[in-house]
Design brief:
The complex is a heterodimer.
Chain A: H1 8-37, H2 47-52, H3 55-88, H4 94-100, H5 102-106, H6 109-120, H7 125-134, H8 146-171, H9 174-182, H10 187-216, H11 219-224, H12 231-240, H13 244-271, H14 295-319, H15 338-345, H16 347-380, H17 383-394, H18 401-412, H19 430-452, H20 456-464, H21 469-497, H22 503-506, H23 514-523, H24 527-557
Helix pairs in contact in A: 1-13, 1-16, 1-18, 3-8, 3-10, 6-8, 6-14, 6-24, 8-10, 9-10, 10-13, 12-13, 13-18, 14-24, 15-16, 15-24, 16-17, 16-19, 16-21, 16-23, 18-19, 19-21, 20-21, 21-24, 23-24
Chain B: E1 4-13, E2 16-26, E3 31-35, H1 42-50, E4 57-62, E5 65-66, H2 72-75, E6 77-80, H3 92-102, H4 107-120, H5 136-148, E7 154-158, H6 166-183, E8 186-191, H7 194-200, E9 203-208, E10 211-216, H8 218-223, H9 228-235, E11 238-240, H10 242-249, E12 258-261, E13 266-269, E14 277-284, E15 288-295, E16 298-305, E17 318-323, E18 329-331
Parallel strand pairs in B: 3-8, 3-9, 6-7, 7-8
Antiparallel strand pairs in B: 1-2, 1-4, 4-5, 9-10, 11-12, 12-18, 13-17, 14-15, 14-17, 15-16
Classes of the chains: A mainly alpha, B alpha+beta.
The structure holds adenosine-5'-triphosphate and magnesium ion.
C-alpha cells in the first residue's frame, strides 16, 4: 500500500485532515495558550500564571493529584482482586459476571454520579432501606466530598484495570504456573513471583490512563465536591465568573500535566510489554484442575456485582416515583410512569433528548470523515509524515474535556475562518464539534487497526483483476475495515450521548442536552425527571453496546 | 523397588475417557518413553504424574509413597515443557535459581548449585541474559537446568524437542541423553516421534487411544510388535493378510492374522520370471533408497541401504520381491 505520489483523491483527504487538525485541534490550543499568556493589556508574559498561582489554585492542583493517586490505587486493587477471583477460582457464571462490567464502562460519568447520589445520599435509597430494616434514624450517614468522589471514580475505573489485567492473564501460558507449582512454589508465591510481574506492564498502562482520566474528571468533583477545589472545577468557575485569563492559565496547567502522562503512556505502551507468547500449545485455563466451585470467591464476586447493579437499580426505582426532592422517604411512594410520559409528551422536555441524539450523530459523522481520512493517509504515506498526522490527531486524547470546551469558546467567540466567519459560541454546532474533537483519536485508532490488519496484496490482487480504485475501495477495502470502523463509531456515539464536561460550558438555552437537563433537574430537586432522563440515556447506551456486540461479531465471522 | 508406579490410572474429561486403566512401573535411573499419536493422552498422563491433574480412578506411587492426592508442590517431580515455559520476567540465572529460592536454600548454596548446573548445560556465559534472547535449543537447556538443579526424584519431559528444527533436535537429543545419564535421575519422556523414543530410551510404552498397547525395550518393540498398531507406528512395517502372504511369499497364516515384514526386510529384484509388482516411487534419503512398490493395488515400502542396491531401478519397473529374513512374525 505504500507509494510516493498522491493522486487527486488523496490530496482531497489530506485537505480534510489538515483542515480539521489545524482548525479544530491546533488553532484552539494556540488561542488558549495565547490567552493564558496575554495579560489583558496586550502584553505577553507569565503574569497570568503568577496571578493564578494563588493558594486556592495550588490547593486545587494538590487535590486533583491526590484524588487521581487515590483513584488509581483503589481502582487498581479492586480490578486486580476481581480479575484474580474470576481467573483463578472456579466460579459458575463467570461470563455473566464479566459482562456486568460493561455497565460501569458504558455508563456516562454524569449518570454514574447521579445514581450514586440517589443511592448513597444521606436520605438516599440505601439510607431508606437501612432505616426500614433497622427501624431507627441514627444510621443516617454523610456521603459527599472526598469519599463520594472516590467511590464514583473507583466504580468507573476499576473495570479498566480488570480488562487490562485479564487480557494479560489470557496471554500468560499456564504451563508457567504449572512449572512454578512443580518446582515447589505455593499458590501465593507463584502469584507474587510469576504472575504479578507479568501483569505489571498492563497495570501500569491502566494506571496511566486512570490517572489522566481522574485528573480530567469533572462530573464527580462538580457535584460532590462542595467546598473542595479541583483543577477542572476551578476552570469552570473561573470561566463562569468571566475571568478568561485565569481560566485559561489553569487550563494550560492542567493540560501540561495531562500531556506529560499521555506521553508517558504512549512511550510505555510501545516499549515495555513482555513477549509472553511462545510456540506450542499454551494452556490458559488456570482453574482447570480444581474441580470444586469456590464458595468464597462466588460470594465476593456476587457482592461486587451487586455494587455494579445497585446504582442503576436506584436510578430505575427513582424514575418510577413521583417528582420530588431528595429529602423524603422514597419507599412509601407509589409507582407511576408519569416521569417518562412527561418527557415524551411535552416538546420542551423532549428537546434535550432529541438534541443529544442529533448532536451525537453529527459528531459520529464528522469523526468518521476526518478519522477515516487520517487513518487512510497514515496507512498509505511515508513514515515521517504519518507520525506527524498521527500525533496531532491523537492530541485531544490527552486534553481534559473542560479544557477543550474552554479553548473552543476562546477561539470561536468571534468570526474566524474555521467558524465560517460567524461566531460559533452559543450555536448548536459547537457542541457536536467539541464531541468530535474529543473523540477523533478513538475513530482514527479503530480505523487504523482496520487498515493495518488488511493484507496489502488484497488491493493489488483486485487491481490486477481489473478493478479500478473506487471499485476496489468499495468492494474489498471498505467491507474489510467496516467492523473496526463501526466499533469506533459506536464508541463515539456512546461517549457523545452522555457528554457533560464540555457541554456544560458550551450549551445555551435552546441547545440543552440530556446531560445538562439532568443536572438542572437535580438542581431543582426534581429527582423523578432526572432519573427518567438518566434511565433513557442508559437504555440508549446499552442498546448501542448490545447492537455493536451483535453486529460486530457477525460482520467479523461473516467475512 | 520402582521409582514410579502407575496403577490402574483412568481419566475422564466431561464423561469422555482419555486414559483407560494405565499400568506402568518405572525403575530407578531409567529413561522411560511413552510414545503415541497426537491426542492419545500422553500429556494428560504426565500431568497426572506431576499432580497438575487428578485421575478419575487409580493410584500413583512415587518412590513407593502413594502420591495420588498430593499437591504438585510436594511431589518433587520436575517437568520440562514443550514450549519451555521459562519465566519471561527473570533472566537465565534467576529461572534456574527459582526452585531453590522457593525451597529457601541459602544464598551460597543457590549460587553454587545454579552455576554448576549452568556449566553442565553449557550456558554459564548466558547466565545474565534475558530468556527471550536465547535460541530455542538454549531455552530448552535452561528449562532442563531449572529442573535438574532441584534434584527431583523424577523428571517428566513433554515433547521437549518438538519446537526445535531438525539438526538442533538431534544435537539437543544427544545432550539430553548425556545429562540424564550423568545425573541418573529417573525420567519419563513423552513424544509422538518413534525414532526419538527408540534412540533415547531404556524402555518404551506405546500408547494409543488411552490404552497401553505394548511396553518393553526398544528392540523388542521394534522387532516384535504386539499388534498391527504398534507395528505400523513404531517400525512402519508392511502388513500382509493371509491371501497376499500366501500368494507373494508362500507363507500360510490364519485368516485373522497379518504377516509383519519390516521395510528393511524386503527388497525389489529385477527378475524376468517373477513379476509381482510395479515400482511407483523411488526416494533417495541419503543413506538409503526408499522404494514404493504397488502389488495389485497394495502399497509395499522397502528401505535399502545404498550399498545393497546393486541394480539400477527406475519408476515403472516391474519387479519381483525378495524377503531378507526367514523369521515369520504375525500380529492379530
Ligand atoms: N482439560 C481438558 N478438558 C477436556 N479435554 C481435555 C483436556 N485436556 C486434554 N483433553 C483431551 O484429552 C485428549 C488427550 O489430550 P492430551 O493433551 O493428553 O493428548 P496428547 O497425547 O498429549 O496429544 P499431543 O501429541 O497433541 O500433545 C484430547 O482429546 C484432548 O482434547
Ligand atoms: Mg501433548
Amino acid at each position: 500500500m505504500k507509494k510516493k505520489k498522491f493522486d487527486a483523491s488523496e490530496y482531497f483527504l489530506l485537505f480534510i485532515v489538515l483542515f480539521f487538525s489545524i482548525g479544530y485541534i491546533l488553532f484552539p490550543l494556540y488561542t488558549l495558550v495565547s490567552s493564558a499568556l496575554n495579560d489583558g493589556n496586550g502584553n505577553f508574559g507569565f503574569s497570568n500564571f503568577l496571578n493564578a498561582f494563588t493558594k486556592t489554585t495550588f490547593q486545587a492542583a494538590i487535590n486533583s493529584i491526590l484524588l487521581s493517586l487515590i483513584t488509581v490505587a483503589l481502582s487498581g486493587i479492586t480490578g486486580l482482586v476481581f480479575a484474580y477471583i474470576l481467573h483463578f477460582q472456579r466460579i459458575r457464571t463467570k461470563s455473566f459476571f464479566s459482562s456486568l462490567l460493561m455497565i460501569p464502562l458504558a455508563t456516562p460519568p454524569l449518570i454514574g454520579v447521579v445514581s450514586f447520589l440517589f443511592l448513597l445520599n444521606e436520605k438516599g435509597l440505601l439510607a431508606n432501606l437501612l432505616e426500614l430494616v433497622f427501624k431507627h434514624n441514627e444510621l443516617s450517614f454523610k456521603f459527599d466530598g472526598w469519599s463520594a468522589i472516590v467511590i464514583v471514580h473507583v466504580y468507573s475505573f476499576f473495570p479498566l484495570f480488570y480488562l487490562f489485567t485479564s487480557s494479560a492473564l489470557k496471554r500468560i501460558d499456564s504451563n508457567l504456573i504449572d512449572a512454578s507449582y512443580s518446582l515447589g512454589a505455593s499458590k501465593t508465591l507463584t502469584f507474587f513471583k510469576v504472575i504479578l510481574p507479568l501483569l505489571i506492564p498492563s497495570v501500569v498502562g491502566a494506571s496511566l490512563i486512570t490517572f489522566m482520566a481522574s485528573m480530567a474528571s469533572f462530573s464527580a468533583p462538580f457535584i460532590f465536591g462542595g467546598s473542595e477545589r479541583f483543577l477542572t472545577t476551578e476552570i469552570y468557575f473561573a470561566k463562569i465568573n468571566g475571568d478568561n485569563s485565569l481560566a485559561s492559565s489553569i487550563a494550560v496547567l492542567l493540560t501540561i500535566i495531562s500531556i506529560i502522562f499521555f506521553i508517558l503512556l504512549r512511550r510505555y505502551r510501545t516499549g515495555k510489554l513482555f513477549d509472553i507468547r511462545h510456540k506450542g500449545v499454551p494452556r490458559t485455563d488456570f482453574s482447570s484442575h480444581r474441580s470444586q466451585t469456590s464458595i468464597s470467591g462466588t460470594i465476593i464476586i456476587s457482592l461486587f456485582s451487586l455494587m455494579l447493579i445497585l446504582p442503576v437499580f436506584t436510578l430505575l426505582y427513582l424514575s418510577f416515583i413521583p417528582e420530588g426532592s431528595l429529602m423524603r422517604n422514597f419507599l412509601s411512594e407509589s409507582f407511576t410512569p408519569e416521569n417518562y410520559l412527561k418527557i415524551f409528551s411535552e416538546p420542551q422536555f423532549f428537546e434535550p433528548f432529541y438534541n443529544s441524539l442529533m448532536m451525537s450523530l453529527i459528531a459520529v459523522l464528522i469523526t468518521l470523515i476526518a478519522g477515516i481520512s487520517s487513518a487512510y493517509l497514515i496507512a498509505k504515506v511515508n513514515t515521517k509524515f504519518k507520525s506527524i498526522i498521527e500525533n496531532i490527531v491523537s492530541i485531544p486524547y490527552g486534553i481534559p474535556g473542560t479544557v477543550i470546551a474552554l479553548s473552543l469558546i476562546l477561539s470561536f467567540n468571534k468570526p474566524v475562518l474555521f467558524g465560517a466567519f460567524t461566531p460559533l459560541v452559543g450555536t448548536f454546532i459547537i457542541i457536536p464539534l467539541a464531541y468530535s474533537i474529543r473523540n477523533i483519536p478513538i475513530l482514527m485508532q479503530s480505523s487504523m487497526s482496520g487498515f493495518y490488519s488488511l493484507d496489502p496484496s488484497l488491493e493489488e490482487a483486485s487491481f490486477s483483476l481489473g478493478a479500478g480504485k473506487m471499485t476496489t475501495f468499495g468492494k474489498v477495502i471498505f467491507p474489510l475495515i467496516f467492523p473496526s470502523v463501526l466499533n469506533g463509531a459506536l464508541l463515539v456515539f456512546i461517549n457523545s450521548a452522555g457528554e457533560f464536561v464540555s457541554t456544560i460550558l458550551l450549551y445555551s438555552y435552546s441547545t440543552k442536552t440530556i446531560s445538562v437537563e439532568i443536572y438542572s433537574q437535580i438542581r431543582m430537586y426534581n429527582t423523578g425527571a432526572a432519573a427518567a432522563y438518566g434511565m433513557l440515556l442508559f437504555a440508549v447506551v446499552m442498546a448501542v453496546v448490545y447492537v455493536s456486540r451483535k453486529t460486530i461479531d457477525k460482520s467479523i465471522t461473516g467475512i | 523397588m520402582s521409582d514410579l508406579k502407575i496403577h490402574n490410572i483412568s481419566k475422564e474429561f466431561n464423561g469422555t475417557a482419555v486414559l483407560d486403566k494405565i499400568n506402568l512401573e518405572i525403575n530407578q535411573g531409567e529413561f522411560f518413553s511413552i510414545v503415541g499419536p497426537s491426542g492419545c493422552g500422553k500429556t494428560t498422563l504426565l500431568r497426572i504424574i506431576a499432580g497438575l491433574e487428578f485421575p478419575t480412578d487409580g493410584r500413583i506411587f512415587i518412590k513407593g509413597i502413594d502420591s495420588t492426592s498430593m499437591p504438585p508442590q510436594k511431589r518433587n517431580v520436575g517437568i520440562v515443557f514443550q514450549n519451555y515455559a521459562l519465566f519471561p520476567n527473570m533472566n537465565v540465572m534467576e529461572n534456574v535459581a527459582y526452585g531453590l529460592k522457593v525451597k529457601k536454600e541459602s544464598r551460597e548454596t543457590i549460587l553454587k548449585k545454579t552455576s554448576s548446573v549452568l556449566e553442565k548445560v553449557l550456558l554459564s556465559h548466558k547466565a545474565g541474559e534475558k530468556v527471550s534472547s536465547l535460541s530455542g535449543g538454549e531455552q530448552q537447556r535452561v528449562s532442563l537446568a531449572r529442573v535438574i538443579v532441584t534434584e527431583p526424584d523424577l523428571i517428566l519431559f513433554d515433547e521437549p524437542l518438538s519446537n526445535l528444527d531438525y539438526s538442533l533436535r538431534q544435537e539437543t537429543r544427544n545432550e539430553l541423553k548425556r545429562l540424564q545419564r550423568e545425573s541418573g535421575i529417573t525420567s519419563v519422556y513423552v513424544t509422538h516421534d518413534q525414532s526419538e523414543a527408540l534412540a533415547l530410551s531404556d524402555r518404551i510404552a506405546v500408547l494409543n487411544q488411552g490404552k497401553i498397547q505394548q511396553q518393553g525395550k526398544p528392540e523388542e518393540i521394534y522387532f516384535n510388535p504386539a499388534n498391527s498398531f504398534v507395528s505400523k507406528f513404531i517400525s512402519h512395517s508392511n502388513l500382509f493378510d493371509s491371501v497376499l502372504s500366501k500368494k507373494l511369499f508362500n507363507i500360510e497364516i490364519n485368516n485373522n492374522q497379518k504377516l509383519v515384514i519390516l521395510q528393511e526386510e524386503i527388497k525389489p529384484v529385477k527378475s524376468t520370471e517373477l513379476k509381482q509388482g510395479v515400482i511407483t516411487e523411488i526416494l533417495f534419503t541419503g543413506y538409503a533408497y526408499e522404494f514404493t512398490i504397488s502389488v495389485d493395488g497394495n502399497i509395499i515400502k522397502s528401505m535399502q541401504p545404498l550399498n545393497t542396491v546393486l541394480e539400477n531401478f527406475s519408476k515403472g519397473n516391474e519387479v519381483g520381491l525378495s524377503l531378507l529374513t526367514d523369521k515369520i512374525r504375525v500380529v492379530e
